[in-house]
Design goal:
The protein is α+β, with helices and mostly antiparallel strands. The protein is 52% helix and 15% strand. Helix 1 crosses helix 6 and helix 3 packs across helix 6.
Length: 131
């Protein structure tokens, strides 16, 4: 079995409440299924599909924490740590990133974390990654 890493990464990044992504073991393709839509194909041939990580498997909060911990000790680290406490953590975190001019740095870090999740999923499921 093989899959394009970009397809798995897209599924990881796009994980949400409305849809699920599946890997078709026969075709090697990644398919999105809307949860409120008819998913007869997946149900009828469930044994030929593997579920990709859902939004519940991807902990964006821990990714934010890891980003903060890799920063040097100081004002930025302290303020970003405070920003992820309580309600509205994601919004406050993004606001502080913008204040510090670190938005691009954050997205590069997050994309690398998503890539690691995608690669780990492929390894766990013994699927070879192709470009």
């Amino acid at each position: 079995m093989q899959v394009k890493l970009d397809d798995v990464m897209e599924a990881v990044e796009m994980a949400n409440d409305e849809s699920r992504y599946y890997y078709n073991k026969v075709t090697g393709e990644v398919a999105m299924v809307m949860l409120d839509a008819d998913s007869d194909e997946i149900e009828a041939h469930f044994d030929q599909y593997l579920s990709l990580p859902s939004k519940y498997d991807i902990n964006d909060y821990h990714i934010m924490e890891a980003f903060i911990w890799q920063l040097p000790d100081g004002k930025q680290q302290a303020q970003l740590t405070r920003s992820i406490s309580g309600r509205g953590a994601f919004r406050y975190f993004r606001d502080r990133l913008a204040d510090f001019g670190m938005t691009d740095q954050w997205y590069r870090f997050r994309d690398a974390a998503y890539r690691d999740i995608a690669i780990e999923w492929c390894q766990d499921n013994q699927i070879m990654v192709v470009k």
